[in-house]
C-alpha cells in the first residue's frame, strides 16, 4: 500500500493542475510558467460517483484509461490490477470484463482496450493477443492473435485496427491490421535513435472532428492525426521549438483547437496547453510543484485522462484528496464514496 501511494502521488505530481470552476462569465485562470494568465473556458463540471466494486474484486488504484458509451463507463486499471471495470451512468458497479490468467478466455496484462458498438477489445501485451468480449453480456467471444507487440491500439470504422507498435517487433511505428490481426500496411518507420515509449498510457486519443491522434515519438515532438475511417494519416502538428526539452508525457486531449496534456521538462512537471486557433503556444505551470499538503481545494483538482465529445474526463481518488486537500473542506458524499473504495469521475465541458 505504501508503494502504491508513493507511485500514485508521483504520477499525480505531474498530471495535476489547479483552477477554479465557475460559470463561463468568470472562467478559470491558470498560472503560467512565464508569469502570465490566460483563461480556459470551462462551461460546466459534472461529477459521477462510482461506488467500489463488489466483494472479492480489487478496487481501482490507478486509472489508465476511461471510455464512455451510451450505457456504460469503462475504466482500465492496467498497472495495479489488470482489469477493465464497468459502471452504469448512475455510478453503480456492474462487472469486470474477463479475468486474469493464461486460459483461452483470459489475459495476463492489459496494455490497452477499446469498444465498438457490440464488443469490447482488450489487448494482452504479454501474450500478443486481443481478447474480444460481447458488450451485451460481457461473455468471451474470440481471440485475435498478433505477430507483433504494440503500445496501444484503436478500432477503425472500416473494420480495421490501428496499432502503435514497438521498435523491437516492427520496423514501422504505425501498423494497420484487419479484425483477424493480419497486417495490411505500416508507416512512420522507426529510426535508429527513436526510443520505445512502451510505459506511457493513452497512446491513442479519439476525437470525432480530429480523428485518432497519437504522440508516439517524443524525439521529433510531433502530434499525428489519423482518419477514424481507415487509419490514413491526415495531418501532423509540430510542437518543437516552443519550449526546449518539453514533451508530452501522454498523448494529449484535443477539443476543437485546444490541445491539453501533461508534459515533462528537465526541471518540472506541468500542464501543456496549445491553442491552434491563433498559433499561440503556452506552457502552464502546475501549482502542485510548490503546494504543501492540504493546500488545494477540492474544486481545483483536475487530472485529464481522455475526452468524450466536448468534455475532458478526469478522476479523483482518495489518495489525491488525502495528499492535496483538507478533508473537512470536501463534500461528505464524495469522501464517503472514496472511503468505500470508489472513485469520482469528472466531466469538464469546454
Give the secondary structure arrangement, pairings included.
Elements: H1 2-15, E1 29-31, E2 37-39, E3 44-50, E4 65-68, E5 72-77, E6 83-88, E7 93-96, E8 112-115, E9 119-124, E10 129-134, E11 140-145, E12 150-155, E13 160-165, E14 172-178, E15 183-189, E16 204-207, E17 211-214, E18 222-226, E19 233-238, E20 247-248, E21 253-255, E22 258-264, E23 269-275, E24 280-285, E25 306-308, E26 311-316, H2 318-324, H3 332-339, E27 343-349
What are the defining features of this structure?
5-stranded antiparallel sheet; globular; 350 residues; 4-stranded antiparallel sheet; mainly beta; disordered N terminus
Number of strands: 27
Basic shape: globular
Give the termini separation: 36 Å
Run of helices and strands? HEEEEEEEEEEEEEEEEEEEEEEEEEEHHE
Radius of gyration: 20 Å
Describe this structure in words.
It is built from 3 helices and 27 strands. It is 8% helix and 40% strand. The N terminus is likely disordered. The radius of gyration is 20 Å and the shape is globular.
Structure summarized in a few sentences:
The protein is mostly beta strands and 350 residues long. It has 3 helices and 27 strands.
